[in-house]
## 1
Amino acid sequence: MKQKVLFFDIDGTLIWSYGGIQEIPQGVQKELKRLKEQGHKLFICSGRPKAMLDQKWWDGTFDGYVLNNGGYVEIDGKSIYENRMDYELCLKTANMLEDLHCDYMIATANHLYIDPSYKELYNFFVQNGHFKDLFTTKFDRNEVLKRAIKIEANVTNNDREKIENYIKNDFGYVINFDEHGSDNAFEFYSPTISKATGIQKVLNYYHLDQDDTYAFGDGENDLEMIEFCRVGVAMGNACDLLKAKANIVCKSIVDDGLEDVLKILFSE
C-alpha cells in the first residue's frame, strides 16, 4: 500500500481519562507499530498544546504532532508551522477575561502560562491531567501574549452569556471560540487555524495529498479533520455531529474500536 498519513485525536480516541483509559490500549499500540513498519506516518492531531503532552507521547511512536487545534505543527522534532494570534486581539481578549474575573491560561508553541491566582482553572488541570509541572506561573503577560497561539478560559454559567456577547459584539469574525472538554472552559484562537489547516502543512512537508490521509476522532473540534481527510473515522463514543460527518463509525474506545478499524483499513 502507498504511504499514508494517519491523524489521531488524543482524548476519547487514543485514551479516555473519563472512561478510565489512561494509556493507549495494548492492541492499539501493536497496530500503530505495525503501521509504522509498513511505512505509514502517524501523527497526533489534538487541541492540546505541546506542554500538555507528557513523556509517553514522545516515545517514537508518532512521527509528528498537529497541536493547539492546528496552530502548531512539529515533525521529527522540528517545528514546521506556528500560527500566533494577533497581538492586539490577544491583549483585548485577556483584558476582557480579567474584567469579567474569568480564570485563563495562555498556550504558546512550547509552554503554558497561568497566573497562580487562577486557582479554579489551575486546579482543574492539575487534578485531572497531572499537569502541575508543565505550567509557568511567573512571566511577563504582554510578552507571552505576543507568542500566544491559544487562550483557554474558565467561564462559569453566569459569565457565559457575557463572554458570548463580547465575542459577538466586539470581536466579530476575527476570533474563533471553542468549548473544551471541561464544562466551563472556552478556547480562543485565530480564525485561520483548524486541525485541517495543520494537516495541510503536514501534507505539504511530505509532498502528499488528501487522498493519502486518514483521521480518527471523537469531538466537535475534530470536524474539520474528519471532513478534510480522505477517510474520516468517528469513534463509537464520538458526538453525534461527528458521527454524521464521518465516513466510518467504529466501535467505542472501551470496545477496542480503534484497534478493530485499523485492522480493517490496513489489513496485512
Note: DSSP finds nine helices and 14 strands in the chain.
## 2
Amino acid sequence: MTDRRTAMTTASTVPYASPASADGAPFVSTPQRYDAILLAGFGGPEGQDDVIPFLRNVTRGRGIPDERLEEVAHHYRHFGGVSPINAQNRALKAALEAEIARRGLDLPVYWGNRNWAPYLGDVVKEAAQDGRTRLLAVATSAYSSFSSCRQYREDFARVLEETALGGEVTIDKVRQFFDHPGFVDAFVDGVVDAVRGFFADGVAPQAVKVLFTTHSIPVDDALRSGPRDIDFGPGGAYEAQHRAVAEVVMAKVGEVLPEAADISWELVFQSRSGPASQPWLEPDICDRIAELPAESAEAVAIVPVGFLSDHMEVMWDLDEEALEAAEEAGLKAVRTPTPGADPRFVAGVVDLVEERMAATPREERPSLTKLGPWYDVCRPGCCENVRAGFKPAAAGVAP
C-alpha cells in the first residue's frame, strides 16, 4: 500500500467550510473557534407506524416498492417498530454534553439525523436561530466509505442549500476516528472478557476464533473509499481501516492475556442488502460461522468493530442471526459490546473536537494504526457513490 503520508496537499476551496478549513489542506494549521457540535446520526423509527416511512427515507431515489421494504421492516417490527439508535444517540449526546461541560467548553450539542426526526435540517436551523453558525460535525460512523462518511457530508451540503443557510452557517467535520484510542480501546475489554470466559469453560486458545464484523458494502464502493490517489488494496480504505483496527485490538488483548496469542481472527461482513448480481465484500459472518467447526473451532467471539452502538444491524443481524448460526454449528458464542457511550469513547470524541479547535499538528495526534491520523478535510474524489456519482458535499475538497 502506498504511504498515505505522502498524499497530495493540493489547496482548494472547500464548500461551506470555516475559514481555517476552506483552503483544502488535509490537516488544518490555524486554530478555529466553533459555536456548537453537530452530532449527525442515521436515525431510526420509534413506532410501528414509522417503519415504512423511515425505510422510504433510507432508500429514497432508488424506486424500491413498499412490499420489498417490508422484507426489511420485520427486523424493526420484531422490536416493536422501535430502533434503538435514537435512544443511543440521546445517551451519547448527554454524555458528550457532560464531558464538554466538565472541560469548561462553551459548545452546545445539536443532534440531527439523516433519515428520521430530529432531522439535520431542523437542528441546523435551530442552531442558526440560536446564533450558533460555525458548526463542527461528529458523524456516528468511524470509517471511510460513501455511506459512512461522504453521504453525511452530502447531507450537510444539501441541508445548507435547502435551508438557504449556506451563506451563513459553516460545517466542518472531525476526522474519521477509526483508529483513535477512545474508539479502539472501547472494544478491547469485551474481547478480553469473551476470551477469558471461553478459557474458563475449558476451551483451548487454538479452538477460539475471533470474528471482527462490519457492514458489507458493494465492492465497487469499497474500492473508491478513501483518497483516490492511494492504493489501499482490493477493499479500499474501508476494508484496510477495519483490518488495521482489528489487528490493534488483538495486540492489546494479547497484552492483557498472553495466552491469547494463539487465537486466530479475521474480518467478516454482514447486513448485505444489494442484488445477488452485485459483488459485495465477503465473507458473510453467518457463512463463516457455519464453516468453523470443520476448522476445529469450539468458540467464537463476535466483535462488531464496524459499529458505534447496538443498533438494528447489531441487535438483529448479530444477536439474532449470527448467534443462531453459532448455536446451529454447536459453537460457544459471545457478541462483544460496541462503544456506545463508553467514557473512553466519549472523552475521545471531545479530544477530537479540541484537537480540531487547536489545530494540533498531525504528528501530535493520537492514532493506533499506520493509516492514521486521518484527514481533517476529505480529499478530492474520496468515497464516490458509484451509482450516483459526486454530489456537492461539505467538509471536503470538491472532486
Note: The chain has two domains: 4-177+342-364, 181-335.
## 3
Amino acid sequence: MTRRHAPVTPPVALTVAGSDSGGGAGVQADLKTMEAHGVFGTSVVTAITAQNTVGVERTHVLPVEEIEAQYGAVATDFDLRAMKTGMLATDSVIDLVADRAADATVPVVVDPVMVAASGDRLLDSAAETAYESLIAEATLVTPNADEATVLTGIEPVDRETAREAGEELVGMGADAALVKGGHIGDGEEGRSSGRRPRADTVTDTLVSTLPDGEPTVHTFEHPRIDTDATHGSGCTLSSAIAAHLAHGETLGYAVEAGTAFMERALRYGLDVGEGPGAVHHLAALREAADRHRTMTDVAEVVEAFVDRDVSRLVPEVGMNVVGATEYAEAVGETAAVEGRITRTLSGVAPNRGVRLGASSHVARFLLAAREFDPALRFAVNCRFDDETEAATAALDGPVTEYTREDEPEDASGTMGWGARQAFGAVDADDPTPVAVLDRGDVGKEAIVKVVAETPEQLGERVFTLLDTVE
C-alpha cells in the first residue's frame, strides 16, 4: 500500500545575494538560516565569489538580465512572505533590486553588504551611492558601523551616534534601521579617541518610525562573544529577521529573536577552514534535537545513583543531577530531576521524573561554568562535610572553591557568581576543575558541586567520592 502524501506549507522567503563558495556567508548562510526557522528559502544569486574563511579571491557579478530572470522565476511561482538582500556589488544590480522591492508587498530587509569579515571589499564605489534608492524601499536596513558610516556620513562610536545614524537611515526612507553594535565602542572613550574599543556588551540600536512620523529607539544588549569567527554573521542575522517577518511576527520581536539566534550561532561557531571559522547557522536546531538524549542521560545517571545508594552524599536540600544540551544557553535547555533526589528509609529515590528546566540552582551553576569550559555538560550537588572535602582529593582533576562571604550585594545570583569565582580563578592553560567547594553561609548549606563532560564521567566522579568516604 502506498503512503498518503502529507505536505506542509511553510512561509516562503527570498534572498537576493552573492554566493559564498566557502559556505559560511551569502546565499548559503541565508538559506541555512531560513530553513532553521521553518521558512522555505528561495534565492536570486547576484554574484559568484571564490572565497573561504581566509578571504575573497575572485568575484564575478552576473549580468543584470540573469539576475532579473532569476527574480522573475521565483516571484511568479512562489507566495513570497519576506525578502532580504545581501551582496549586490554594482549600481545596476542595486537599481534592479530597488525597482523590484518597490513593487513588492512583503517586508524587505536590506543588509548593505560592503565589506567581508576578512576585510575584502564586496561593493564598488559607484554602488555605494546607489543604495539610497534601495534603502527607501526597506522595511529594515541592517548596517554595521562601517556600513552605517558610508551610508550616512555618521560614524557610530557609541549609543548616541548609533542612534543618529539610525535616524539618518530612517530619514532616507527606511521604515526602520538596525545599527549593529559589534564594531561599536561604548561611552566617551569611543567618541573622544576615534577608536572602537571592544566593550564586553554589544548594543544593537533599532530606530523606527511611529505612526505620527516621530522616531522611536530600542536597544538590544547581549554579551560579546570572544571570537573572530564572525564570517557570515551579518547575513545570518538579517536572514533570521526576514524569516521571523515571513512568519508574520512584529519587527521588534523579529529583531530580538534574530539577535538571540545570532548570539548562539556565534558562541557555538564552526571551527572549519584555515581562517577563524564561521557561525553555526543550525546551532539552535541542534540544541532542540539534543534535548531528548540529554534527558535520557540524566535519567540513567539517576538510576545508577539509586542502584548504588548514594544517600551518604545527598545534602539536606536534596541532590539533583543536571544535564545541559550541547548548545544550552538557558535553564529551560537543561534537564534535571523534578523535586530532586532525596534519602528514603531504604536508600535514595527521585521525587519525580526528569524534565527540562526542573533545576534552578544547579542548572544556573552549570551554565555559568560552561562560560569557561563549554565542554562541561553535567553537574550534581553533593553533601559537604569534612570527609567529603577530604575525598575530593581522590578525584581525577583539580578542585576549587568559593566563599559566599565574598559575594557582593549587587551580584546577579549566587550560583552564577560562585561559578565565576571558582572557574575564573583557574588559568586558561590549566585543567578545568572537576569539583567546586561551596562553603555555604548562614542559612545556606555548604555543598560540593561535581561537574563533568559526560554522564559516565559524572557517575565515576560521584562514585569515587562515595567509595572514599565509605
Note: The chain is about 35% helix and 20% strand.
